[in-house]
Amino acid sequence: MNMGLGTAQFGLAYGISNRDGQTPETEARGILSGAATRGFTLIDTAAQYGTSEAVIGRCLPAGHRFRIVTKTPTYEKAALDDGDALRLDAQFRASLRYLGQRTLYGLMIHHAEDLLAENGVVLWRAMQNLKAAGGVEKIGVSLYTPEQLDAVVASFPVDLVQVPVNVLDQRLVRSGRLKRLKQAGVEVHARSIFLQGLLLMDPGALAGPLARAREVLTRYRGLARDRGLTPLEAALAYVNGVGEIDAVIVGVNNARQLDELCAAGRRDRGATPLDFAEFAVDDERIIDPRRWQ
Prior knowledge:
Helix content: 40-55%
Structural class: alpha/beta
Order of helices and strands: EHEHEHEHHEHEHHEHHEHH
Strand content: 5-15%
Number of helices: 12
Number of strands: 8
Shape: globular
Oligomer: single chain
Strand order of the largest sheet: 1-2-3-4-5-6-7-8
Radius of gyration: 19 Å
Distance between the termini: 33 Å
Largest sheet: 8 strands, parallel, barrel
């Protein structure tokens, strides 16, 4: 499994289960160093992640071999214009400065709705220009739903997508969409593999809208327990079994969590394959964090 480090928490207090707030810069430095020595291949960040890009730029270990992927600004407009394309270009160049890099591995549209808006093609052309100039190797889109994916790939020749895949959100796997992406040569990065930490929380402690997930999470924890796995190990076992995934993006708040994650990953590699089909959920109020408010 190729592991990528998600870094939203380097610039924001990110994640439903995060009780520690934004990761201090000294801790971020240790996480990046530990990820480099443990074989992480990728760093995922975004202009919208607060100070994340600047923290990464200051804390990257010397001689690192990370491939870095960042994302565009968000626009939230019904129609886009050439000024928005200029903003994308300017923000990308600012991202290079913050990160201390001459080029990046990937640039993705942060919100697919921007690309799908009227005249959203101006953003795609701006990204193509950056790729042609050698500023970035691959361009693509970060997506939330199968419908967004269908609309994007029907109109744009993406190199790279980032999509949610986890024990509860199996939509892209079960529908065959990931398989079709791989057949088309698109690189797939899976995020939200712990559903912002929901898969690791005590079901009995869930309240409000998240209480809807109690029953399925209780069954999930039961399967993990019966197989001698922690919820963390079981979540990794699921995504490790999805062959269409090229890289798994995971975020940690401190070096201890990184150690736990890597230990769980090592144990998962020797685990008996499990059938997670019974835990698939279609209710977006559970599987889409945007609906948790």
